[in-house]
Amino acid sequence: MSKLNTSATFKATFFAILLVPIHIFGSILIALLGHYLNFNLDIVSSLLISQFGFLLLPVIVYFLITKDPVRKTLRLELMSLPDILRVLAITFLIQPLIMGISGLGSLFFPNYLVNFTAEINSSVSFPFLLMLTALFPALFEEFCMRGIVLSGYRGKKLWIAACINGLLFAVLHLNIQQGLYAFVLGFIFVYLVDAANSIFASITSHFAINASQMTLLHLTSKNLEEAGQSLANVQANSSKESLIASIVLLLVLGSITSIFAYRIYKGLKKNNSVI
């Protein structure tokens, strides 16, 4: 049994690590093809290739090669409405903490999300924007990380599985600023999946976080455009002192709201048997 667990852990970890060069070399290959074939991919095409080609396709290939049971590996178990509401409540309550950690990272590393939002806002409709930045990542990233990768750590201590999963999730983002809060989210998502015994717990939370962040950035960007400003310029002109004050406030508020999130999490775990 121990050898089987070790083999499953190695297989899952290898899959996660393999996703990184797939992203890197896949992007390089597409850029080279674009150069020699004389075409340039727009941001929407790049996102679609990244999500479907570098995430969903490896998931499909993994199951074709390993023959692992899809439903059991991914924990494709339906959730009750009360549990969905619990997950959404937890997600809402941890948002200030996540935003604070994201802001903390932006003090030391560039935040590419602002420029990305400004560029994609002018390219697609808002519903399609949510599909690209919230729905597809929530599905495909969760299938990879809280599905295949986490399945290899069943039987391990949960906090160890959560730490490793969070670390691999952070590395997958290939961006230090995003990687900081991706680690925390990856850690939390593991506990949600374990408590609900369903990957739909992390998919729901992941979608809610991405959708709310993109909605906020979209509305802010639109309002600033009407005022003749841009989100990037406003961020650049903000004083470091005001940014630090906002981060501290978010971290303090997030620490308080996370206590309530933990209480709801215990209720979620109590209502479900964990495999």
Automatic annotation (TrEMBL):
InterPro entries: Rce1/LyrA-like_dom. GO terms for biological process: CAAX-box protein maturation; proteolysis. The chain crosses the membrane at residues 12-37, 43-65, 85-108, 120-138, 158-176, 182-209, 243-265. Keywords: Hydrolase, Membrane, Protease, Transmembrane, Transmembrane helix. GO terms for molecular function: endopeptidase activity. Signal peptide: none annotated. Residues 125-211 form the CAAX prenyl protease 2/Lysostaphin resistance protein A-like domain. Pfam families: Rce1-like. The keyword Nuclease does not apply. This is CAAX amino terminal protease self-immunity. It comes from Oxobacter pfennigii.
